[in-house]
From TrEMBL:
<dbReference type="InterPro" id="IPR000914">
    <property type="entry name" value="SBP_5_dom"/>
</dbReference>
<comment type="similarity">
    <text>Belongs to the bacterial solute-binding protein 5 family.</text>
</comment>
<dbReference type="GO" id="GO:0015833">
    <property type="term" value="P:peptide transport"/>
</dbReference>
<keyword id="KW-0812">Transmembrane</keyword>
<dbReference type="GO" id="GO:1904680">
    <property type="term" value="F:peptide transmembrane transporter activity"/>
</dbReference>
<feature type="domain" description="Solute-binding protein family 5">
    <location>
        <begin position="100"/>
        <end position="482"/>
    </location>
</feature>
<protein>
    <submittedName>
        <fullName>Extracellular solute-binding protein family 5</fullName>
    </submittedName>
</protein>
<dbReference type="Pfam" id="PF00496">
    <property type="entry name" value="SBP_bac_5"/>
</dbReference>
<keyword id="KW-0732">Signal</keyword>
<keyword id="KW-0813">Transport</keyword>
<dbReference type="InterPro" id="IPR039424">
    <property type="entry name" value="SBP_5"/>
</dbReference>
<keyword id="KW-0472">Membrane</keyword>
<keyword id="KW-1133">Transmembrane helix</keyword>
<feature type="transmembrane region" description="Helical">
    <location>
        <begin position="699"/>
        <end position="719"/>
    </location>
</feature>
């Protein structure tokens, strides 16, 4: 065989080998993505009457953006996770206050085999998208299909970064199904940790040795927006043209402004630069002096709900590792301290001058929406007996146990004053610091001497809160469900492999703990009940467990119930944009830009059509929410029917599409309502997404055959010439 023939044969073999190596990728990619990417109808929407509106702006107090590293497990996300909320999505979205979990990138999930298997079914027709400067410096688009492979890569990194307390393994069953197998079952962890994690593309995150340290130069996510540009203090986002919710989002472009201070954030809101904010209070200063003065009709601020409902779980922790002596270790003493707190005045002084901006904390330590879902009326009534202000009764309780107020100082029975105690916070957190100061002032009325100290955040969240180097601290904790509130606040670290509290860690100042910051050693029954709560999907049983746990908290009072920090604490304007969750129609608690799952509200925001009345605004918001739910639960094939688009038009306008065709819709009057279940749901929901098919595997195979034939012809010609 001559050299030329050998070369041709060698070339042919190499090409065939390359094709054989590449073909599985082609085939697998087409199986994973049996549908071609479809442009979202929202990409062609144009509302001409909104062309003069200000570009939608978002602001809140947070750390700087890290513009050159978009690692969801890295320092940038920990510094400021708000930009990530618009780019990346989770399998499910949990309502911050009620714990209801909505299907998102997952359409459904179920628990099997005594809750050791958590099976998650994934949504079809979803793509990771990016459009801009690529890592090699060129301009281009990225469009990667979402599949189980991405989910597996995500959680392999997740467990490396955050640990794996329940020995979970994640396995791909098929491109749209994964199984999380639990070595030790925990339903709450599955619902409120695993489902709430940003899903990332395997192309960027697979096989990372140290995911937290990896540099991810561009963010490629499935979310409704992609990053256009970013600095440390500002980021611009454009609508993802291939987003999977048909017709959403309505807002095409927005800018996120980092609020370095509350004053700066409120300045942006007052000037109309930002239309949506999540900025905390500056103490007693009302919204009217912070920003709504600039446009009282359309600028709004919310601190909890007007009737006192809401609030983010917050506690006055007592460090039992330091104060585990009489009278601090007596329930009656902690009860007396609770009665000495004037919660209305604390709210007025710390939350915008609103009497119920900081709702009173009951002895079950749960905000009222959560109480109403999980606890019975008897337990709720008992829990709220401790949040009543009664200074006279507080003093009587103290004196009945031998304590005395001598020269304004609370003293032991022998006349020795109790020592001065230190209560810490950070002055830069103006709302919680104001609460801390007001607590100290109230407790001085019963002679308790408290010195308020402002620590730096690094000292407060490290050596102090985690390391136990404090006497008293007022701070916030998690929400979603009683399980998570109580875990964070009162469940101590357990000895590995047991259900026993690590007493040595709790009692040793300087040893860091990341829950039970008061270092309370709970009764074993409390820990056992908490473990049972994590191991059941039975809502009736879960309510029974939670009521028993609440009764223990009411009896022992391991922390001082004061007030909840305001939640929601957010700002919005509806002169130019509508769809917000408002007191007129409050459909989700995920309303702050920094809160995970704010897409539940963002997907409904839209330019306000000229002439829209307040009643029409509420009707639109109700319809938009109802249509969104219908789609994500698989009850409709679009989230944006013509009836909804009609509500976004002036009576003489039409929806204009930037493509070659236009569609005209008739304005109609709509007034709809929606009812949602606020308890934990384990009911199966299925969803079908219909899109047109792309190239089939057969077509691809045909192309490959043609290439092989061409190679064979070339080889034949070469031989003939020889």
């Amino acid at each position: 065989m001559n050299k030329k023939i050998k070369n041709v044969i060698g070339l042919t073999a190499l090409i065939l080998m390359a094709l054989s190596a590449f073909m599985p990728f082609i085939i697998s990619s087409r199986v994973v993505n049996s549908q071609s990417p479809q442009l979202n109808p929202a990409a062609s929407y144009s509302f001409p009457w909104a062309s003069s509106y200000p570009t939608f702006g978002v602001t809140t107090g947070s750390g700087p953006i890290v513009p050159n590293n978009w690692n969801v497990f890295g320092v940038g996300e920990r510094s400021d996770d708000i930009p990530y909320e618009f780019i990346f999505e989770t399998l499910g979205i949990a309502d911050f206050m009620t714990g209801q979990v909505y299907p998102w990138l997952a359409t459904n999930w179920t628990f099997t085999d005594n809750n050791t298997n958590f099976i998650v079914y994934l949504r079809h027709g979803v793509y990771f998208y990016y459009n801009g400067t690529l890592p090699n410096g060129t301009q281009g688009q990225i469009l990667w299909p979402f599949s189980a492979k991405d989910v597996v890569a995500t959680y392999q990194d997740y467990f490396k970064v955050y640990g794996n307390p329940f020995n979970v393994t994640v396995t791909e069953v098929n491109p749209y199904e994964v199984i999380f197998h639990f070595g030790k079952p925990n339903v709450q962890y599955a619902l409120y940790d695993l489902l709430e994690q940003f899903i990332v593309p395997w192309e960027q995150y697979a096989n990372l040795t140290n995911p937290a340290a990896a540099v991810i130069p561009i963010p490629v996510g499935t979310g409704p927006y992609y990053l256009a540009k970013a600095t440390e203090t500002q980021a611009t986002f454009y609508r993802n043209p291939y987003y999977w919710i048909p017709g959403r989002p309505f807002i095409s472009t927005f800018t996120y402004y980092v609020g370095i201070s509350n004053a700066q954030a409120y300045g942006l809101l007052a000037k109309g630069t930002a239309q949506w904010g999540g900025t905390g209070s500056t103490g007693s200063t009302p919204f009217s002096q912070l920003f709504t003065y600039a446009n009282p009709q359309y600028y709004h601020g919310m601190a909890s709900i007007g009737n006192g409902s809401g609030g983010q779980p917050s506690f006055l922790w007592i460090n039992f590792a330091r104060l585990n002596y009489w009278p601090w270790n007596e329930t009656w003493f902690r009860y007396a301290l609770s009665l000495a707190l004037n919660r209305t005045q604390i709210s007025l002084g710390s939350q915008y001058g609103i009497p119920t901006g900081a709702p009173p904390t009951p002895a079950d330590f749960l905000p009222s929406p959560m109480e109403e879902i999980w606890l019975n009326s008897t337990i709720i009534q008992e829990a709220h007996q401790v949040d009543q202000y009664n200074l006279t009764e507080a003093i009587q309780i103290l004196e009945s146990h031998g304590l005395k107020i001598i020269n304004g100082k609370l003293s032991f029975p022998n006349g020795t004053p109790l020592p001065t105690y230190t209560m810490i916070n950070y002055q830069g957190f103006s709302d919680t610091y104001a609460t801390t100061q007001l607590i100290a002032e109230d407790l001085a009325q019963i002679g308790l001497q408290i010195n308020v100290v402002s620590e730096t955040p690094s000292q407060m969240f490290g050596p102090a809160l985690d390391g136990g180097q404090y006497d008293l601290i007022y701070w916030i904790t998690n929400a979603y469900s009683p399980y998570y509130v109580w875990e964070s606040a009162f469940i101590p670290p357990l000895i590995p492999g047991t259900d026993q509290p690590n007493v040595t860690a709790l009692e040793t100042i300087g040893v860091y703990v990341y829950s039970d910051f008061g270092r309370w050693i709970p009764p074993k029954e409390f820990i056992d009940l908490w473990i049972q709560a994590g191991d059941t999907t039975n809502v009736t049983l879960l309510k029974q467990i939670y009521n028993k746990m609440a009764a223990i908290l009411i009896k022992d009072l391991p922390a001082i119930p004061v007030v909840f920090d305001a939640y929601p604490r957010y700002e919005y304007e509806d002169q130019y944009y509508i769809g917000f969750s408002t007191p007129q129609f409050f459909y989700t608690w995920n309303v702050e830009p920094w809160i995970g799952g704010n897409l539940l509200m963002l997907m409904n925001l839209a330019p306000r059509p000229p002439g829209m009345s307040n009643a029409q605004e509420v009707a639109y918001t109700q319809a938009a929410w109802q249509d969104l739910l219908a789609f994500i639960y698989g009850k409709a094939n679009t989230a944006t029917p013509p009836s909804l688009l009609a509500m976004l038009q002036p009576s003489t306008s039409t929806v204009t599409q930037t493509s070659t065709s236009t569609s005209t819709v008739t304005t109609t009057s709509a007034s709809t309502s929606v009812t949602t279940t606020t308890s934990m749901s384990t009911t199966s929901v299925t969803s079908t997404v219909s899109t047109s098919s792309g190239l089939s595997t057969g077509v691809i195979a045909g192309i490959i055959v043609v290439i092989i034939v061409i190679i064979a012809v070339v080889a034949y010609v070469v031989v003939r010439r020889r």
